[in-house]
Structures are given as structure tokens and as C-alpha cells.
Design a protein that fits this description.
This protein is α+β, with helices and mostly antiparallel strands and about 130 residues long. It has two helices and nine strands; from the N terminus they run βαβββββαβββ. The strands form two sheets. Strands 1, 2, 3, 4 and 5 form a five-stranded mixed beta sheet that branches. Strands 6-9-8-7 form a four-stranded mixed beta sheet, covered by helices on one side. The radius of gyration is 15 Å and the shape is globular. About 15% of the residues are buried.
Length: about 130
């Protein structure tokens, strides 16, 4: 069995689509719109065919995100090398995104950094 896709509710659908396309190479499908519920979605497909669904609708509830909250906590993208982790982390930082850790080697041996996307979702960038 494999995971088919992950999904995020977002406030700024177009902005989040652009972010994941620009920095992580996601390729979006055509926007889906349900006029009955107001739901709008994109599926972003990444290099290894992993998919992320980003969704918005008029009645979503925005809550403050605690960095150590229980539940789903981050997405992790593998870049293939330490140099790529460093490069992407620097690019995101220079573009105004918040780096909350790293780049560093963790206690369990991963080389990674962690950044926040435009809506404060945590993204790990690993080698």
C-alpha cells in the first residue's frame, strides 16, 4: 500500500500553488471548482509522482499553528544532497520565508532544515 496524496486547506490557493511550484517543482493540474460548496482545489504532482492537494472554500477556519502541536506536523521534501538542502534553504530565506531550524545534521543522522510556507505549515528539506 502507498499514500495516494496529502491535502492542505489554505487561505490563498493561488499563492500557495505558486509557492509549491516555484520552490519545490510541483506541477498543478487544472483547478477544480464546486459551485455548490465553493470548494476549489489543485493537485500538485512532484518529481516522484507524490501529490499534494491544496484546497480552499469560503467556510474554512484559520487557526494559529503551534510548532509542537499534536497531529500532522510537516511535509518533507528530499533534495538529493546536503548542497541542495543548503541551496534551497538559502533561497527560501532570501525570499523572505522563515527558517525555523538548520540546516543541520539531526541526532538520528538526517541532514535537514525546516522552513515555514506562506501559511506557516512546516516543511522539512532533507538531503
Amino acid at each position: 500500500m502507498k499514500i495516494n496524496h496529502l491535502a492542505l486547506y489554505v487561505n490563498d490557493l493561488e499563492g500557495m500553488k505558486k509557492f509549491y511550484e516555484t520552490y519545490f517543482g510541483g506541477i498543478a493540474n487544472s483547478k477544480y471548482y464546486n459551485p455548490k460548496t465553493g470548494l476549489q482545489t489543485y493537485f500538485l504532482t512532484f518529481e516522484d509522482s507524490t501529490r499534494l492537494e491544496i484546497m480552499t472554500r469560503p467556510d474554512i477556519i484559520t487557526q494559529e499553528k503551534a510548532l509542537n502541536a499534536a497531529g500532522y506536523i510537516h511535509l518533507a521534501f528530499s533534495t538529493g544532497s546536503k548542497e541542495n538542502v543548503d541551496r534551497l534553504t538559502t533561497l527560501l530565506k532570501d525570499s523572505g520565508y522563515r527558517v525555523i531550524s538548520g540546516p543541520r545534521t539531526t541526532g538520528d543522522g538526517y541532514y535537514e532544515s525546516c522552513v515555514l510556507d506562506p501559511e506557516d505549515n512546516q516543511i522539512e528539506i532533507v538531503e
